[in-house]
Amino acid sequence: MTKIEREHRAREWASRIEAFRASGMTQRRWAAEQGLSEDRVSYWYRKLGRPPESLAEPSWVPLTATPQDVSSLRLRVGPVEIDVATGFDPQLLQAVIQTVASCG
Q: Nearest 5°: phi and psi at 37?
């Protein structure tokens, strides 16, 4: 099998695994409904089903704080800690976090 064929197969299975995860079904039921071997689905799920943390999209959580609550905030992104002081630039912080997360 050529590299191009392997890449095509991986993309095809990535699409299938995404559909399986979105279905809410058990792996056994989804495989049966798709006419696929449960063992094959299990293999590709292990290989592609859970993206490494470094590739996962960061999620943003709303944070509400008043100036008297805190004067600084410490964020942890993986092994990196970021101290954020009052009056920080939100766009700069977002860029720093995205950069740190992509380096993981």
A: -70, 130
